[in-house]
Every structure is written in structure tokens, then in C-alpha cells.
Amino acid sequence: TGFTARVNTFPTVAIDHKNRISVAWSDRLRDSGGTCRAEGQSRIVLSTSTNGAQSWSGPVVVDAGNGVGHQITPSLTYGGGAMLLLWKDLRETYLGSGFYGGGPPSPLAP
After folding, report:
1. How far apart are CA 10 and CA 5, in angstroms?
2. pLDDT at site 102
3. 69 Rama sector, left if φ>0, alpha if ψ -120 to 50, beta otherwise
């Protein structure tokens, strides 16, 4: 039998020293029309606002890597001059043990 779980996808928010607001959440992959694909795996996406939440960047997939398994429960924080985004990644293991984090620095660069 396969491993199944129901997960709440609450977003995580952090504000950096330049008052940029970053929000990350787990989102299902979608087709070009915006519809969730049946086989779509959840990936962590990030959106940023530089004007006090009046407008937001389009969601960017943080780690689109290949493999079957969802990315869930992101946690975003800012401290010591750096933004840190962590999440649980179920691609590397059948039962979902292990935490992986990271991503491109460009959306969070100083």
C-alpha cells in the first residue's frame, strides 16, 4: 500500500530588514490552464512584496526538482541578515523522513 497523509497547507511569512514581505506555501503543480494536475506533486512556492503588500511577485517554485513526493510544511524566517526557508520533502523517502531546505537566493537576495 502507498503512504497517504492529509496536510494543512498554512502559509509562512517573514519580513526582512528592508521591509520586504515573503510568503511561502505548499502548492500543487498545475497545468498551463491553472488546473491542478491529477498527478501533481506539491512544491514549495514563494511570493514577495516590496511595497507593503500592495502587490506581490508571481509565485516561484523554490525547488522544482524531479521525483515523486510532496514538499510540505514550509517554515520561513529572517535573522542575522539572511532569510531561511525550510520544508519537509517527501521525495527522498517512502515514509517521508528527513528535512531538506534551500532554494535560489534571487527572490530573497539583499
Report:
1. 15
2. 45
3. left
